[in-house]
Fold:
Amino acid sequence: MGRFIPSRKVVPGSTKAGTDTTDTHQFTGSINVSGNVYAKEYHVQVVSSSIIYASGSHKFGDSSDDFQMFTGSVTVDGALSASQGITASFFLGSGQNLTGLPSAAVSTYSNPSDNRVITSVNATTISAEAGLLFDGTRLAVTGNVLPGSNNAYTLGDSSTKWSHVHAMNIHTGDLHLKNHKGDWTLIEDTEYLTLKNNKTGKTYKLLMEEIG
Structure:
């Protein structure tokens, strides 16, 4: 440990204490510096809170990979800016004064109402459809339900069936009837109807009587 013991309270001119970077100097009491303090590293042990009022600008680090860590809260009275990202477990506030953010993909939401299904109008607009209502268990449609193309899609399949179909009129091509016992197809010809047994391959003509 090097020793620096000035003979006077005021040491004029330039003074050098120690000859090696491993020298250590201890001071008991306070050190008041009216000029600048230069050091390659600062190691500070804080044993009580302090308030320092200083004017001018301050810079921490000289490279983008430098890491500064604060334990506790940091209060900024003024603007806070960063050339890279700022991350946190959460942010508080409305965010109404944030600038430089990318534009939202959706800027317009039209016809809002409860339980309406939302559809895309264009790249920036969505709309709540008055004719499509879904409350979590029931889909209500006002209008027609059409497939994307003719004779290409099914409503249900052989293993996932609708339990009941309620309709005033059913317009169909050939009618297929199948359960655990039989498998039949009702075929419409020009002047009569035929039934085909899909299990045996046999076809039967239905005898009909004209009544009007």
Notes: The radius of gyration is 42 Å. Residues 102-143 form one domain. The longest strand covers residues 125-134. The CA atoms of residues 16 and 38 lie 13 Å apart.
